[in-house]
Design brief:
Blueprint: H1 7-18, E1 23-24, H2 26-45, H3 58-70, H4 81-97, E2 102-103, E3 110-113, E4 130-134, E5 140-144, E6 152-155, H5 160-175
Parallel strand pairs: 1-6
Antiparallel strand pairs: 2-3, 3-4, 4-5, 5-6
Helix pairs in contact: 1-2, 1-3, 2-3, 4-5
């Protein structure tokens, strides 16, 4: 069994990701933090202290963060229609498992949920919820449930477990527990 990542690495990876215009599943943060711990250990074997006050090892944070999240963007081989349908069904199940109401989707190859009364709202009527899509050549994509709008990547595995993580992120946004990624001042 692999040891959990250090809190310091989780904090550094989370801080790195928070400055980017995308969302990251907990498993991706953990994976990046584990890689960062391994990179620091290797650097330590070569005489470099993790506590480098001059910032000479800052590139390790970027390397770990980008290597881990990069695995969850465009797939090496495009997905089939059956694979996409299975992912969308897993996402639908995950969203419903989070207690969210699935609604008609304005986004191609997506699953949409209604906004929650206590959370942020989008659209001209203030009642537009969120949609998540996955395509043959992409990872998870978050949008407002409108025909046009901003698209944000959610770096998460394109698996049933990843779909559950995506559903948790969507619920967090809808409840206001995760900052509204569509508000301009977030970036």
């Amino acid at each position: 069994m692999e040891a959990p990542p250090t809190e310091q690495s989780i904090t550094q990876i989370t801080r790195h990701y928070s400055g980017l215009r995308a969302l990251y599943a907990p498993s991706v943060i953990t994976e990046a933090a584990l890689l960062l711990d391994a990179l620091y250990a290797t650097a330590g074997e070569h005489g470099h202290s993790r506590e480098d006050r001059l910032g000479r090892l800052g590139g390790l944070i970027t390397a770990a963060a980008e290597a881990s999240s990069g695995k969850y963007g465009r797939p090496a081989v495009e997905r089939t229609g059956d694979q996409i349908a299975a992912l969308l069904m897993a996402l639908r199940d995950g969203l419903q498992g989070e207690g969210l109401t699935v609604t008609g989707c304005q986004v191609r190859l997506g699953v949409a949920v209604e906004a929650l009364s206590a959370g942020p709202h989008w659209g001209l009527d203030g009642r537009t919820g969120l949609a998540v899509a996955v395509y043959s050549d992409s990872g998870w994509e978050l949008l407002t449930n409108q025909a046009r709008g901003t698209v944000l990547s959610i770096h998460a595995p394109t698996t049933k477990d990843g779909a559950r993580e995506v559903a948790g992120i969507v619920k967090g946004i809808l409840k206001g527990d995760i900052a509204d990624p569509f508000r301009r001042e977030q970036w």
